[in-house]
Amino acid sequence: MQSPIFWVRRRALALSLALFGSACLFVTPAAHGQQSTITGTVVDPRGGNLPNAVVEIKNEASDVSITVKADGLGHFTTPVLAAGKYDVQVTVSGFAPAVQKAVSLDGSHSQDLTVKMNLADAADQVTVEAAASGSIAAAYAPVGALLEARSARSEINANYIDEFTSPVADYGDILNIAPGTYTLSSNGVGQGQSKTTFRGFPDGDYDITLDGIPFEDTNTPTHHSWAFAPSQWIGNIDFDRSPGTASTIGPAPFGGSINIITKDISPVPSFRGSVSYGSFNTQLFDFQFDSGSLLHSSKLAMTGDVHRMLSDGFQTFNYQERNAGDLKVQYKFSDKTILTGYSGVIWLDANTPNNTAPLRSQAQPGYTPTGTLKNDPSAYYQGYKFLLQNTDPTSSFYFKYNTYHVPTDFEYVGIKSALGKGWLIDFKPYTYSYYNAQYYANQPSGTATGLIDASCNVETQKKVTNSAGQSVTIGVFPCAVDKLNSYRKYGEVSTISQTSKYGVFRTGLWFEWATTNRYQIPSDPLSLHLAGAGNPAYQPGGKLDSDLPNFHERFYTYSYQPYAEFEWHVLPKLQITGGTKYAYYKMDLTQYADNSKTIGYLTGPGSFVSNSADYRSWLPSFDISYRIKPNWSTYFEFGKGSIIPPSSVFDINQTPNGATPGGSVKTLPKPSGTSTYQAGTVAKLKRLTIDGDFYYIKFQNSYISIPDPVVTTAQDYYLGPDSITKGFEAEANFYIGHGFSFYGNGAVTNATYTGTGVPSGLWVAGTPANIESFGLLYQAKNIDAGFFEKRVGPQFDDAGVYHNQNYDQAFNIDNLDFGYTVRNNSVFDRTKFAVTFNNLLDTRNVTSIKFAGKPVATNGSAYYATTAIGPLDLLTQTPGRSVMFSLTFGYAPKR
């Protein structure tokens, strides 16, 4: 039997050899004056950077290994290594381990790798070939296309979202960096509804998804940027500026798809608490955490966020408050089966008015805005001086009469499993809800004078029960609105795919069912009315509704889209994908009697009419992609898209001129459609990435309603004239060196109407002639700094139907971002200080005008309808300069 001393000596010898071998990794190059390292970037299957990856480097000869951790950009760097061959293994939670074997170092040159991770559903270990591009410029680009692209796509990565956007930004603000897009919110970044436009597609003409689940309103496929998916929950965004392939699901793949991906779950536990303060008294308190592996078997992990945001907003007395939290949990049954659960809840309250500010002057060119500048004692607030003059919070004249109360929630459970022989199933049932209860003052019908606007001077009578229990008749001044828009949705998204030597077959189904309740009821903002001579005073709570609404409707909607496509790998470098989907949508609508604003007074309060409609579209797609070189690809795509008609197609007054109810829709509109053709290319060199695309789109435009020539009480709907949009988009990122890079993109668009009866060469409203973005970035030595400029070219507003009334001048917005982050793998990893400036030069530009008057037909054609410019026209303008300071405390226990 050997003595304990022997074992001690043996272990000491083994330890010495191990230490010696490790030292050889670092000491040998220095001894010979040689310098070699392995650097790299870890990316997901879409090309987005994966932070906090664990990288193990093993010397093949000595079998000695070291471990480093990638930073928040997904970048990693080894210490100086000896000449030889090394195996590099990268692990990230939720992905299969990736191995790069036999990375050769000659002692004089370093190796730079791009390690692409695959989802952990196929095998225990995936051997990754040499990086497709090895592009440093791609690693440092804030946004870019993928070499695997089959359409015009922009991948906005996590580093840009975390380091170069305001901490209160929403997804619209993030999208501003993508080619050809612009997003505006008149109340400041993240302080209200922002709407994104690209290629002339306004909000409602495209899909937005969260982790693959479409979300939108039920009456029209529009979106609410302040009520879903705040930036604290966003990991990256995949933005497809096309109808996509057959597997692109949603109610409106008409113009494209904005695919928001929630944050990945990190394998390393960490906690981050942030405090931000800035312009307009904006405050943000945020706490985020990653649990790391909670079980010894590393099967369970989660990440989450809780935050509270307060702001006065840029516009006068436009207060905001948001309390929100989300939680993402992942359980790994095996390397082939992963269960994911997600929940996000938002509680939003605001004093936002229903409209933007009216004009003060009719002078051309341009308009003088009002109601948006702080400390302007002469400014109207929505045209109502009394809302500014009376600051008694107990009075309904108080400016906080305008209120939003918007709670939302979004939940899903997803199961993804590899079944063997290349088969993969992904099943995701979900539910989400939106509840917008709103009170707001009506837009005035005349010039506001004195304490009460002219629209408050029309009195109606209403019987109520007073505080003494007596029935009395009171005067009601319904110059405000009690509004509700609420819905709950249930659905599922499922995909089954099979990968073979021939290619990838995909089939699946999107199904959704929703219930909706919407109304607008005239409301009295006065808190006290006399009931008449000899009657006790009536004292309501400050919001008294009329008996009949402007409209009230309840409806059910049903959507389903089955699809199938095949991605044929014709040659190693050539892929052809074709497929189709069947888009079905049905609405069962009940509309109740109203005050003749929408369908009219039927047989009495509570009476209703019911309507039903269903819409069908076949939407084929086809694309070809070819890899010219490992770092250069090209593609061509054709796709058809559609958009469902809104519920308002049934807003036909049932009692014209007091006649017997009987108004109806005789001819329903068909879904609007697009046919998109585009071709593009993507190239990624060592220090330069560049991609561009040409596109040609034929639109079917909005609906025109005309009386039926036979049934006088009926309406017929037809699609408006077509339009042709064509243009070019391009973006590039050049890595200058020493952490500096220059990014730029641009888009040139020509969009005109075509068809019988349309004025020749009429420009499509809301389509800028050109858009450019430029950015100078520095990302090194714990510092992330960037200056970005966005220029949106000139465009037209329509005053009526197809009439270019107003010409909006081009405008610029400049942003500046600076952040210092601790990235040393210490317990204080990701502690950060940051400052962001939005609209740095404080430009005040009118970006669009909504005309208040009704169109008047000229030349006997609705296509020539015009609207007179007036002082009550509403404008949208860029918000003034804002600055936000943020301090984040990070804590990550050492591994």
Give a quick precis of the structure.
This protein is mostly beta strands and 895 residues long. Helices cover 5% and strands 50% of the residues. The protein folds into two domains: 4-128, Immunoglobulin-like (Sandwich); 270-611 and 620-891, Beta Barrel (Maltoporin, Chain A), CATH 2.40.170.20.
Present the secondary structure layout.
Layout: H1 4-31, E1 38-43, E2 54-59, E3 65-69, E4 75-77, E5 84-91, E6 98-105, E7 111-116, E8 126-127, H2 136-140, E9 143-144, E10 153-156, H3 158-163, H4 171-175, E11 181-184, E12 195-198, E13 207-210, E14 213-214, E15 234-240, E16 257-262, E17 270-278, E18 282-290, E19 300-311, E20 320-334, E21 337-350, H5 386-389, E22 403-420, E23 423-441, E24 460-465, E25 471-476, E26 480-500, E27 503-524, E28 544-545, E29 551-571, E30 574-592, E31 608-629, E32 632-643, E33 664-667, E34 672-684, E35 688-699, E36 703-707, E37 714-719, E38 722-737, E39 740-754, E40 770-780, E41 783-792, E42 795-798, E43 804-808, E44 811-821, E45 832-838, E46 846-850, E47 856-858, E48 861-866, E49 874-877, E50 882-891
Parallel strand pairs: 1-7, 6-8, 13-16, 33-37
Antiparallel strand pairs: 1-4, 2-3, 2-5, 5-6, 9-10, 10-15, 11-12, 13-14, 15-16, 17-18, 17-50, 18-19, 19-20, 20-21, 21-22, 22-23, 23-26, 24-25, 26-27, 27-28, 27-29, 29-30, 30-31, 31-32, 32-34, 34-35, 35-38, 36-37, 38-39, 39-40, 40-41, 41-44, 42-43, 44-45, 45-50, 46-49, 47-48
Describe it for me?
The protein has 895 residues and is mostly beta strands. It folds into two domains: 4-128, Immunoglobulin-like; 270-611 and 620-891, TonB-dependent receptor, beta-barrel domain (Maltoporin, Chain A), CATH 2.40.170. The chain is built from five helices and 50 strands. The chain has a 22-stranded antiparallel beta barrel. The chain has a six-stranded mixed beta sheet with strand order 9-10-15-16-13-14. It has a five-stranded mixed beta sheet with strand order 3-2-5-6-8, with no helix packed on it. Strand 42 (795-798) and strand 43 form a beta hairpin. The longest helix is centred in the N-terminal third of the chain and has 28 residues, at 4-31. It is globular. The chain starts with a helix and ends with a strand.
